[in-house]
Design brief:
mainly alpha; 10 helices; 157 residues; elongated
Length: 157
C-alpha cells in the first residue's frame, strides 16, 4: 500500500510540474476550453481533456481545433536555457545586430531564413528594452510579440 501511495504522489508531482510549465499545447479542445486560466488545475484539466478525447491529435492531423500543420515543434525551455546561458554574448551581438550567439538564438527559436534580418534588427533596435533587466527572455518575448511579422516566434520563449 505504501508503494502505491508513493507511486501515486510521484505521478501527481510529475503531472503538476509538467502542467506548471504550460505543456498543454496551443490547440485542442482543452486549451480552448481553459484558455486564459492559469494555475495547475486548469492546465491539468486541459491536458486531460485533450488526452482523453484524442482531439489534439485529430486537430494536428487535420488542422482543426486551433491546431496547425506546420510541423514545427517548439520548446520554450530550450530557448530560455540558451538565453540564460549566453546572456553576455547575446547582449554583445544584439548591440551589434549580428553575431554567432544571435544566429544561434534564431536557430533555436526556429526563425525562418527570410525573417532572420528583421529578427536581428528588431532585437538591436530594442536593445534597451530586451536587456533592461534580468528578465531577458520575457522582454524579448514582448518585443517580438509587438512586431506583426515576428509575433509568431514569441510563442517559443
Amino acid at each position: 500500500m505504501k508503494k502505491i501511495v508513493i507511486a501515486a504522489l510521484a505521478t501527481l508531482a510529475a503531472t503538476a510540474s509538467m502542467a506548471a510549465q504550460n505543456n498543454i499545447g496551443s490547440c485542442g479542445w482543452g486549451s480552448k476550453l481553459f484558455q486564459g486560466q492559469s494555475g495547475v488545475a486548469p492546465q491539468v484539466l486541459a491536458a486531460t481533456t485533450n488526452g482523453t478525447s484524442g482531439n489534439q491529435t485529430f486537430g494536428i492531423t487535420f488542422g482543426t481545433s486551433g491546431c496547425t500543420q506546420d510541423g514545427l515543434v517548439s520548446s520554450s525551455w530550450k530557448t530560455a536555457m540558451y538565453i540564460d546561458g549566453n546572456r553576455l554574448a547575446l547582449a554583445r551581438d544584439a548591440a551589434a545586430g549580428q553575431g554567432e550567439s544571435l544566429d544561434t538564438l534564431a536557430t533555436v527559436m526556429g526563425v525562418k531564413a527570410d525573417d532572420r534580418a528583421l529578427f536581428a534588427a528588431t532585437i538591436q533596435s530594442n536593445f534597451a528594452t530586451v536587456f533592461a533587466n534580468e528578465a531577458v527572455a520575457a522582454n524579448l518575448k514582448a518585443v517580438l510579440a509587438a512586431n506583426s511579422q515576428l509575433a509568431g516566434y514569441a510563442a517559443v520563449i
